[in-house]
Design goal:
mainly alpha; transmembrane helix
Length: 153
């Protein structure tokens, strides 16, 4: 245990874009998916862990080359936020595919945190990322399905 500036930077870099939803909420129809409480709880737990754990656990030996895939995944994630903002801010854009990845805005944060775990030699970040993946990706898939099956306006 201890403060990690690099871990804090990773957490803020990944989670801060979500604040865009406060100023730029989705336009049009907003579909709410029915999500099992347990799954919703796991998602929230993963989000909290990924915010806190990187900042409060000391890194091990820094493996600098792992920073490259972490930055690449973060750049893709930021690009997806850009797509949402530029393409009209429809809720469906938050769950739209990229290449063959069905919910990349749920997958990319997990990838960033897993790469950060390797970069910082910190297994606790990997565990937090795994919890996030167990909740966030299935919730995103359920929401995507609900959006696709909702009647259009």
């Amino acid at each position: 245990m201890g403060f990690s500036l690099l871990g804090l930077i990773v957490s803020i870099a990944v989670l801060a874009p979500n604040l865009l939803l406060l100023w730029f909420p989705p336009h049009g129809q907003n579909t709410v998916a029915r999500v099992p409480r347990l799954l919703e709880g796991v998602e929230r737990m993963g989000q909290a862990l990924c915010l806190v754990v990187p900042a409060i656990t000391l890194p091990g030996a820094i493996v600098w080359w792992w920073a490259l895939p972490a930055v690449l995944a973060l750049a893709i994630y930021y690009g997806l936020w850009g797509r949402y903002l530029v393409a009209g801010r429809a809720q469906a854009l938050l769950y739209a595919s990229l290449w063959r990845v069905p919910v990349p805005m749920a997958v990319m944060p997990v990838v960033v945190f897993l790469c950060a775990a390797a970069w910082l030699s910190n297994p606790w970040i990997a565990i937090a990322a795994a919890v996030l993946a167990l909740g966030h990706i299935p919730v995103a898939l359920l929401t995507r399905r609900a959006i696709r099956s909702a009647p259009s306006e």
